[in-house]
Structures are given as structure tokens and as C-alpha cells.
Amino acid sequence: MATGKGLPQFFDGLWKDRTRFLAAGGIAILLWFLLGEKVTNRLPIPLDVTVLAAGEAPVGSGLFIRLPESLAFSAVDPASVTVSLEGPRADLAAVRPLLQGFYDVPLDFLAGKQSESNPVNIDGDLFPQLDSLRLEVVHATPLVLSVAKRDAGRISLGAGNIEFDPPTLAENMDVVFEPSSLSVTGPQAPIQRLREDPSLFKLATIARSDLAQGERGELSFRAAQGSFEEEALARLRFVDGGGSDVIKVRLKRRREMVIVSLTDVEVVPFVPSSAKRDNIRMENPLTLEPATIDVKVTLPKEGYADKDEAKAAVGRALNLFVDLGDMAFTELAGRLPIRIEGLPDGATIEFSVDVIDVTWNEIDTVEEPE
């Protein structure tokens, strides 16, 4: 009769021969690993669908649709697909981190049309690194690609292409761009939309901390890092003949201005010694026509409590005159431009007339009878 001591005695013998015990364990683990690597597994992998312009390189894993130079991307639906890979576990583990598929759009995709939408057949032929793996598409919806003929255009840049944070920073602020326009390429319809409303493209956001640099010097932004306010415009690409899409931005703060009007401002003659004539009336040497004019002065508001104070200050300081040195010495009459003294800094002036008719008044001569 068995005593039940055989199994413990067997393990006791293996333990006493530790070398055999460890070797047997190692062989068992190795056989388990090797057999596991040969086991066929099925692995679902989601892939984003990315459309690459001509010359653009793929990044990461995904299904990449490569366009020729003559075509522009409009839309793709769905934006992602799920594929199922079947094969040895080791091969699946090697392929999964960077699974890339490529579909090259043929030149005749449009078949002579301006735009076209066609289904794209996804199969294992699009994935060059599959080797022993078998691929199936899990997503039942067909992939539809829409492309159009590539067009080119140019949009002008203005203050609407910049966002300010907070928005109140934009008050009384002029924005100067260099260059002042951008070349874009892509489908015709988005280009036309952007031409109609260039502010749909936002080059950058300028915060309060950027103002000092923007006013003293300039800020630099890359057009490619900007954003569009409509999804369809995101298909556009910026191009530049110089190989750069860098836009320099300078900020100029506008001064709040006030406009004052003055009427019947006297224009006085200035007669340098070199311009004096002989035989001219001492009491009334010159006639000016008109002798008074109306003016409109636009000046910075700062420094004045209100418009009336600004008007009074301009009236006190402003001096309008004609310089008789501007008239040829041989002439006794002519049209002279109005000159200004006392105009405030940053101010501009408009005259009701641009020139004054000036006449030297000669002494009347009376012929004595013989």
C-alpha cells in the first residue's frame, strides 16, 4: 500500500540537487515565453487620418494621405479609422507604436473637375511594415476624401488679425505689419472667404506684457502658428517666396485728438529788411487778400480739460503770416503761402484758403503842370 510519501520525497530530491531544479525552472520559463511569442493575437489599433501636402513629412502613427502639388485638401470623413492586426504577439508589439499607412492621391483624382469627393480603399497594401501581420478595417464606414484644385492668393493684414488680452488694449492702438500681406495656397473657396474677411485669421494674441516691446521695437510671429476662426479655412497654407512666414508686428498708440475751429484769424505780413521796397506807402505798405481766414486745428487732447480750453490755448499761441522774402524783389504783387508759428506738438492744421494775394502799395505820384 502507498504511504503518500512519494511526491514529497521527489521534491525533496530536487531541492537537494539545486542546480537541476533551477535549470528545469529556467527551461520551463523559456519554453513558455517562446511558445507565447508564436501565439496568434488580434489587436485593434485606432489611427488618425492626416492629409499631407506635397513634401510634408508624417509624424507619429496614423493613416497618411499624400497629395500631389496640384491638389489641395478640402475634407476627409471620418477623421479616424480603426484597423485590426492579426499575427504573432512579438510582431504586433513591434509594429503598434509606429503603425503608418500611406495613400498617394493620383493626379487624375479630380477627373477634370474643380473639386471631387471619392472613397479611399483601405487595405494592407497601404501599410508597408506589416510583413507577417494581417490587417482588417474595423470601421465599417468608408473613408471619403474631398480634394480641390490648388489655388493661390494674397490677403492683407490689419488690426483685425491680432487679438488683444484684455480687448481694451486695442483702444487707440495702430498695428503695423511687415510684410503687410500674406500669400496663401489651398482650395479656391476658403481663399475667397479669407479675402472677403481677413480677420478670420488670427496671427497672435498680444498681452499687456507685450506692449512695451511692441511699441519700442517689434514683435515677431510665424504665420503657421496662427489660427483660423472657421474650420474650413484651416486647410489653407501660408507660403513666402523668401522661405519664411515670419511677420513682424509694431504697435503705435494713437493719441486721443480734439478738433477746434477758429474763424477770422488774422494773417500778418513779415517783411525782412532784404524785402523792403522804395516808394512804398509808410502808413499802409501792403494789402493782403484775404486778410483773415478760417482754420481747423486737430491736436492731442492731453493737457486740456476740455475742447474750449484747447481752443483758447490754440487761439493764443497760433500765429499766421506771409513772408515777403518769398516774393521776387522785382515784383510788387504775388501769391504767397501761409506760414505758421505756435502750432502745438502733434497738431495738424487746415486753412480755408491756401495762399494769400499780397500787393505792395506804392506812393501815388502826381505830375506837376509845366
Structure description:
- With 370 residues, the chain is α+β, with helices and mostly antiparallel strands.
- It folds into three domains: 40-149, RNA Polymerase Alpha Subunit, Chain A, domain 2 (Beta Complex), CATH 2.170.120; 151-253, RNA Polymerase Alpha Subunit, Chain A, domain 2, CATH 2.170.120; 257-360, RNA Polymerase Alpha Subunit, Chain A, domain 2 (Beta Complex), CATH 2.170.120.30.
- The chain is 18% helix and 41% strand.
- It is built from six helices and 26 strands.
- The chain has helices at 6-16, 18-38, 89-95, 188-196, 211-216, 307-317, and strands at 40-52, 62-66, 71-77, 80-88, 100-104, 115-120, 134-137, 143-149, 151-156, 162-165, 173-178, 181-186, 201-202, 204-207, 219-222, 227-228, 237-239, 246-253, 257-270, 286-289, 292-300, 319-323, 333-337, 339-341, 348-351, 355-360.
- A five-stranded mixed beta sheet has the order 5-2-1-4-7. A five-stranded mixed beta sheet has the order 24-22-19-21-25, covered by helices on one side.
- The termini are far apart.
- The model has no long low-confidence stretch (mean pLDDT 82).
